[in-house]
TrEMBL record:
Ligase found in the keyword field: no
Domain of life: Bacteria
Bilayer topology annotation: Multi-pass membrane protein
Annotated Pfam families: YitT_membrane (PF02588)
Transmembrane segments: 16-35, 41-62, 74-96, 108-126, 147-168, 174-191
GO cellular component, one term: plasma membrane
InterPro entries given in the database record: UPF0750_membrane (IPR051461), YitT (IPR003740)
Descriptive protein name: YitT family protein
Source organism of the structure: Rhodobacter ferrooxidans
Lineage, highest ranks first: Bacteria, Pseudomonadati, Pseudomonadota, Alphaproteobacteria, Rhodobacterales
Keywords: Cell membrane, Membrane, Transmembrane, Transmembrane helix
Localization per record: Cell membrane
């Protein structure tokens, strides 16, 4: 097998910029349609719907407790890159609505587009040693301590999140949301292969 490659600073910067930019655009699509998604971003969206606080503020704040876990498990570089990615997504979701708006967006197409855009965003962040923080970091830490698979933790969290969404959104909207989340997971599952992409 070839020696492990390391991305340059410029490559990391463009990868994280792309990932954060596409993730923010995904949030704009999502919230325009009143949909939700899974993981930490989904929790932030749901809280913003329930309280009226901006997604940007909620997403930034709920990620704060997870950076220590990320530092302990993944190291300083991962934690710094993740903080930058989360902060950039939060900032962009505040200003991006002044750059783009939708006269009409079909909810099924919008959910699929959200999933594709967000999936590509996560791939870019993962391949450059970053994430969008939160539940994924906690799931990996729990797996280390207890042996309980990280994927199961994330699945249980998302199941609880979508159940809670039924109290704030109608079943059709939740179904569209589930479609979008499924597309995100499919994009990542099919394309994120550590044995194929070994650069860090």
């Amino acid at each position: 097998m070839a020696d492990t490659l390391t991305h340059t600073l410029i490559e990391d910067a463009q990868g994280i910029a792309y990932g954060a930019g596409m993730a923010a655009f995904g949030v704009i699509l999502l919230t325009h349609l009143g949909l939700i998604t899974g993981q930490t971003a989904g929790l932030a969206v749901l809280i913003s719907y329930a309280t009226g606080y901006s997604f940007a503020a909620v997403f930034f704040l709920i990620n704060l407790p997870f950076y220590w876990i990320g530092y302990r498990r993944m190291g300083l570089a991962f934690t710094v890159k993740t903080f930058i990615a989360v902060a950039t997504v939060s900032g962009l979701t505040l200003i991006m609505p002044t750059w783009v708006s939708f006269a009409h967006l079909n909810p099924i197409f919008g959910a699929i587009l959200f999933g594709a855009v967000s999936g590509s965003a996560l791939l870019a962040l993962f391949r450059h040693g970053a994430s969008l923080g939160g539940v994924g970091i906690l799931a990996l830490a729990l797996q280390d301590k207890t042996g309980f698979r990280a994927g199961y933790t994330q699945l249980l969290f998302d199941a609880a999140l979508f159940t809670a969404a039924l109290f704030l959104r109608d079943p059709t909207t939740v179904a569209y949301s589930f479609l979008g989340a499924a597309v995100v997971n499919l994009v990542v599952a099919i394309n994120h292969r550590r044995d194929r992409y070994i650069a860090t």
